[in-house]
Write a structure and sequence with these properties.
Chain B: Residues 95-284 form the ABC transmembrane type-1 domain. Chain B: InterPro entries: MetI-like, MetI-like_sf. Chain B: Belongs to the binding-protein-dependent transport system permease family. Chain B: It comes from Chitinimonas prasina. The structure holds two protein chains of two kinds. Chain A is α+β, with helices and mostly antiparallel strands. Helices cover 23% and strands 34% of the residues of chain A. Chain A contains eight helices and 20 strands. Chain A has helices at 43-51, 93-103, 108-122, 137-150, 167-184, 195-201, 219-224, 229-234; strands at residues 4-12, 18-27, 32-36, 58-63, 66-67, 78-81, 155-159, 187-192, 204-209, 212-217, 241-251, 254-259, 264-267, 278-283, 288-291, 299-308, 312-319, 325-331, 342-347, 353-355. In chain A, helix 2 crosses helix 3. Chain A is elongated. Chain B is an all-alpha fold. Chain B has a domain at 100-295: MetI-like fold (Orthogonal Bundle). Chain B is built from 14 helices and no strands. Classes of the chains: A alpha+beta, B mainly alpha.
C-alpha cells in the first residue's frame, strides 16, 4: 500500500503541445481515487505518467514517500489494468497471470500459488489453461485484474477497464471492483469517462478538464457543491440545467435574480456581486417540481418531451423567452405533464447553484454539504 | 409453454420457396464471380505451364523436345532420365549443400531481419524514417549490382568457397525487414505497455512478446527465404569454386556436358531440384499467406 503525491505534474510532448498543465494531487494510502473527465482531458496521460509509461516533463511524482520520476515502470510497485485487457494472446491465462512473477524470477511454486489464489478470488480457476481468445469479455477483464493482483502491487491503476463490456456486465464488474478494493484495501486509481462509475466507485473523484484538475472531492461533495459550471455539468444525468440570469438586488431576506424571459426568482442566500452582474442559475433535474398554475419563483414553460425510463421519467420543457431546454425528473408513479402542456417549473431554492460570468460557483450556493 | 411449441411450423410451400431463393442467390453469386475465376485460371495456367512442360519433358522418352505445340502429356513415360541424373552427378551431396546453405540463410535472415525491424517499428530515434527509407530503396536495385562489392568483401574476408560466403550477403534483405516491421507494428501498444509494467526489459519484450506474436510473419519470411536461397544460382556459382561444395541449383549444370546437351536429363534435374521446395511450400502455404496478411493491411 502507498500514498501518492503529484506535485505540479506536467506533460509536454516533444515539439508538441502541453497536455498536462501542472497537477497537484495527494492520493491517500488505500484510497480509491477516480479520474474522470471528457475525452482528451488528460486523465489517461496522468495515469500513464504514474505507471511510468509516459515521461514526466515537469513536477514531481512520489509513490510511498519515494520520488519515482525516473524509476522504470516495473520498479514503481504499480500494476495496471488496460481498457483493451492487454492479455498476451500466445499465453494461457495461467501464464498471463504469472508473467510478472516469472520475469521477477520467482520460484515456480510461488508463482503457481499466487496465480491459483488470485484465480480463486476472481472465480476464474476453471479458465487457467485457456488462451485469451477462448474467453468472453468479462472473463478477459477478470484475468487482466488477476494479472494485476498476482503482483501484489502498492498501487492498482485502472484505465477505463469496463468500457468494452456490455451494460449489464459493466454493472456487475463495478460491484466486484468495489468489493475487491474493500478486500485488498490497496490504493487504486481508476480512469473513466463514465460519471456513474466515478460516483459509485470512488472514495474521491478528481474531475479533469483540458489537462487540469477542476475539482477533487468525495462523489457527494462534487455533486452537491461543484466548484464550477464544468464540474456541475459533468456529474449528474440528466445534467444540471443552466439558465442565464442577472443578479438584480440583494436584501436581508436573500437575492433576487431575473431569468431571460423576465421570470424573477428569490434565492434565500445573499451573494456579494454587483447588481446587474450576469450569472448562471444551475438546477439539477431532481430539484424541479411542476404545477399547472403560475406562482412565485415559478418558470413558465411548455413540455417538449416525456421520457419514461421505468423507475423514473424525464420531462424536457422549453422555458418562455429562453433558448435553454429544462429537464426535470419525476418518480414513475407520479403524474407527469403531457407533451405540449403548459406548466410552471419551481426550482428547489435551497438547492440552486449560482455561477459567475467565469463559470465559478458563488460561495454559499449549491446544496448544503456536511 | 416450451420453445418448440411456440415456434410456428414452416409450411412446405414456404420452405421450398426459401430453398429456391437460396439457389438463385447462389447462382447470382457464381455468375458475378465468373470473370474473377476466368482471369485467375488464365494466370494460373501461365504460371504453372513452364513447370508442367519441364515435368512432361523429364518424364518423356520419345518425341521432339522443342515441337510446337508442345505435348500436354508425357510420351512413352519413364523414369530413365531421373535415373541418369543420379548416375551423372552426386545428387545427395548437392542436396546436403543446398540444405546447409538454405537452412543457414533462413535462420540468419530471421535473426537479422527481426532484430533490424524491431527498432524501426517500435523505437523512436532520430533518422528512423531515413534508415527505413534507405533500406526500402535497395528493393529497386537488381541483386546483381551488389555482386562485385559483395565478392570483393567475401574475398577479403577469405570466405570464398564457403557456406558463410554464400549466406552472409543474403541475410539482411529489405523484404524481410519490411515484412517483420509490419508485423511488429501490428502488435497493440497496450501489450508492450503491459509487459513493461510487468517488469519486462526491451529484450524480454522483443523475445517473449513480439517474436511469438510475429510468428505468422516469421513463418512467411522463412518460407520466402528458403525458396529464394534454394533456387539461387548466380551468387553461389560465383563464390563456390569446389564442385563438392556446390548447392543443387549449381550442381545440376553438370548435367549439360561440354559436348552434349541432354534436355530431358536437365529437365529431370530441374524437377528434382524443385520437388523438395515444392513439398515444403505445399505444407506451409497457409502460414505463408497468413504472414503476408499483416504486411498488406
Amino acid at each position: 500500500m502507498a500514498e501518492l503525491k503529484l506535485k505540479n505534474l506536467q506533460k509536454t510532448y516533444e515539439d508538441g503541445p502541453t497536455v498536462i498543465h501542472g497537477i497537484d494531487l495527494d492520493i491517500r494510502d488505500g484510497e480509491f481515487m477516480v479520474f474522470v473527465g471528457p475525452s482528451g482531458c488528460g486523465k489517461t496521460t496522468t495515469l500513464r505518467m504514474i505507471a511510468g509509461l509516459e515521461d514526466i516533463s515537469g513536477g514531481e511524482l512520489s509513490i510511498g514517500q519515494r520520488r519515482v520520476n525516473d524509476v522504470p515502470a516495473a520498479k514503481r510497485g504499480v500494476a495496471m489494468v488496460f481498457q483493451s485487457y492487454a492479455l498476451y494472446p500466445h499465453m494461457t491465462v495461467r501464464e498471463n497471470m504469472g508473467f510478472g512473477l516469472k520475469l521477477a524470477k520467482k520460484p515456480k511454486a510461488e508463482i503457481n500459488e499466487a496465480v491459483e489464489r488470485a484465480a480463486q478470488v476472481l472465480q476464474i480457476t476453471h479458465l487457467l489453461e485457456r488462451k485469451p481468445k477462448a474467453l468472453s469479455g468479462g472473463q478477459r477483464q477478470r484475468v487482466a485484474i488477476g494479472r494485476a493482483i498476482v503482483r501484489k502491487p502498492d498501487v492498482f491503476l485502472f484505465d477505463e477497464p469496463l468500457s468494452n463490456l456490455d451494460a449489464s456486465l459493466r454493472v456487475q464488474m463495478r460491484i466486484e471492483l468495489a468489493k475487491l478494493h474493500k478486500d485488498l484495501a490497496t490504493t487504486m486509481i481508476y480512469v473513466t469517462h463514465d460519471q456513474v462509475e466515478a460516483m459509485t466507485l470512488g472514495d474521491r473523484i478528481a474531475v479533469f478538464n483540458g489537462g487540469r484538475i477542476e475539482q477533487v472531492g468525495t462523489p457527494l461533495e462534487l455533486y452537491q457543491q461543484p466548484a464550477n459550471q464544468f464540474v456541475a455539468g459533468f456529474l449528474g444525468s440528466p445534467k444540471m440545467n443552466f439558465l442565464p440570469a442577472q443578479l438584480r438586488s440583494g436584501s436581508n431576506s436573500g437575492s433576487d435574480i431575473v431569468l431571460a424571459g423576465n421570470t424573477s426568482i428569490t434565492l434565500p442566500q445573499q451573494y456579494r456581486l454587483q447588481s446587474g452582474s450576469p450569472i448562471t442559475l444551475g438546477v439539477r433535474p431532481e430539484h424541479i417540481a411542476w404545477q399547472v398554475q403560475a406562482g412565485d419563483n415559478a418558470i413558465p414553460a411548455s413540455v417538449d418531451l416525456v421520457e419514461h425510463l421505468g423507475g423514473e421519467q424525464i420531462i424536457y420543457a422549453r422555458a418562455d423567452g429562453m433558448d435553454a431546454q429544462i429537464a426535470f425528473s419525476l418518480p414513475s408513479k407520479e403524474t407527469a405533464p403531457h407533451r405540449g402542456e403548459r406548466v410552471w417549473l419551481k426550482p428547489e431554492l435551497a438547492a440552486c447553484h449560482l455561477f459567475d460570468a467565469a463559470g465559478l460557483a458563488l460561495p454559499g450556493s449549491g446544496q448544503p454539504y456536511p | 409453454m416450451s420453445q418448440a411449441q411456440t415456434m410456428p411450423a414452416i409450411a412446405p410451400s414456404s420452405a421450398s420457396a426459401l430453398q429456391r431463393g437460396l439457389r438463385s442467390a447462389r447462382l447470382r453469386r457464381i455468375v458475378r464471380r465468373l470473370p474473377h475465376y476466368l482471369l485467375l485460371s488464365v494466370l494460373a495456367i501461365i504460371t504453372v505451364y513452364p513447370f508442367w512442360w519441364t515435368l512432361v519433358t523429364a518424364l518423356s522418352t520419345t518425341g521432339d523436345v522443342y515441337s510446337f505445340p508442345p505435348p500436354l502429356w508425357p510420351q512413352d513415360p519413364s523414369l530413365v532420365n531421373f535415373i541418369e541424373v543420379f548416375d551423372t552427378i552426386d545428387l545427395l551431396a548437392f542436396y546436403k549443400n543446398s540444405l546447409l546453405i538454405s537452412g543457414a540463410t533462413v535462420v540468419g535472415t530471421l535473426v537479422i531481419c527481426s532484430l533490424a525491424a524491431y527498432p524501426l517499428a517500435r523505437m523512436q530515434f532520430p533518422g528512423r524514417k531515413l534508415v527505413f527509407g534507405a533500406i526500402i530503396a535497395t528493393m529497386i536495385l537488381p541483386a546483381e549490382i551488389n555482386f562485385l562489392v559483395n565478392f570483393i568483401t567475401v574475398s577479403k574476408l577469405q570466405l570464398t568457397d564457403s557456406v558463410t560466403g554464400v549466406v552472409l550477403p543474403n541475410l539482411a534483405g529489405a523484404v524481410g525487414i519490411f515484412l517483420m516491421k509490419q508485423a511488429f507494428e501490428a502488435v497493440p501498444q497496450d501489450l508492450i505497455d503491459a509487459a513493461r509494467v510487468d517488469g519486462a526489459n526491451e529484450w524480454e519484450i522483443f523475445w517473449k512478446i513480439m517474436l511469438p506474436l510475429a510468428k505468422p510473419a516469421l513463418g512467411a519470411l522463412a518460407i520466402l527465404t528458403l525458396v529464394t536461397a534454394w533456387n539461387q544460382y548466380i551468387w553461389p556459382s560465383v563464390v563456390m569454386t569446389s564442385p563438392e561444395n556446390f548447392p543443387l541449383s549449381v550442381g545440376v549444370q553438370y548435367l549439360s556436358g561440354s559436348f552434349s546437351f541432354k534436355t530431358r536429363v536437365v529437365a529431370a534435374g530441374a524437377v528434382l531440384t524443385v520437388i523438395p521446395i515444392l513439398i515444403v511450400f505445399l505444407f506451409t502455404q497457409r502460414y505463408f499467406l497468413r504472414g503476408f496478411d499483416g504486411a498488406v493491411k
